[in-house]
Amino acid sequence: MILDLDIGNTLSKWRLKDADSSEIRSRGAVWTREEWRPGSDIPDLDVVEAVRISSVARRAVLEETVSLLHRRVGAVHVARSTPEALGVTNGYEEPGRLGVDRWMGTLACYQLAGGCCSVDCGSAITVDFVLPGGRHLGGYILPGLRLMKESLKLGTRNVAIDPDSEAEELLGPGTRTVEAVNHGIYMAAVSAVNRIYSEVCDREGVPLPMLLTGGDARVISRGIQVPHAVWPDMVYAGLEACFPLTAAERAGRMSGAPRVPSPVSLEKIRAGLAFSMLL
Ligand SMILES: Nc1ncnc2c1ncn2[C@@H]1O[C@H](COP(=O)(O)OP(=O)(O)OP(=O)(O)O)[C@@H](O)[C@H]1O
Ligand SMILES: CC(C)(CO)[C@@H](O)C(=O)NCCC(=O)O
Ligand SMILES: [K+]
Question: Which InterPro entries does the record match to this protein (predicted)?
Answer without folding.
Answer: ATPase_NBD (IPR043129), Type_III_PanK (IPR004619)
